Each structure stands twice: as structure tokens, then as C-alpha cells.
Amino acid sequence: MIPNAKLGSIFAAIAVVEEAAMCGRRSAHLLFDALQGAYDNHVERAQMRLAPVKSRSSRDIPRAGAQDSYHRQR
Predict the structure, then answer these.
(1) Looking at residue 9, what is its pLDDT?
(2) Nearest residue to 18 (alpha-carbon basis) of 6, 26, 31
(3) What is the pLDDT of residue 1?
(4) CA–CA distance, 19 with 13 (Å, rounded to integer)
């Protein structure tokens, strides 16, 4: 019987647990990045939906030379 056999199996178990924790951490980061991207997309769309839109009537659209003709009419 090897005297340190139990010690080696304990180290192997610790290594397996550490590797599982690292894998879980990487998975959590991937999930968090996906959720963060979805949230950012949602907030951007909501801000665009709530942004004020300037009305553009035919009088608001500038035409070439509009300032000159306006001053001559006065």
C-alpha cells in the first residue's frame, strides 16, 4: 500500500473541483455578456422610441436661397 495514496486522491479531487468552478465561472461570464447585450439593446431601443422628434412641415424645410428671398419680400 502506498502511504500517500489518499493524499494524492484528495489533490485530484481538489483539482476536479477547481476545474469545475473555472468552467462554471466561464459559463456565467458568457451568460452575463449575453444578458448585458440584450439589456443594452433594449435600453437603446427604448431611448430611441422616447426621443423627441422634430416636426418637419413644408415651411420648416430650408430651400436654396430661402434667406435671400425672405429678406427681399420685406
Answers:
(1) 82
(2) 26
(3) 44
(4) 10
Among positive and negative, which fits the CA dihedral 61, 65, 67, 72?
Answer: negative
List, for residues 2-60, the tens digit of each pLDDT value.
Answer: 556 666 788 888 899 999 999 999 999 999 999 999 999 999 999 888 877 766 665 66
Grid cell for residue 71: 429678406
Domains of the chain, residue spans: 25-50
Cell of 67: 434667406
Amino acid at 43: V
Residue showing cell 473541483 = 17
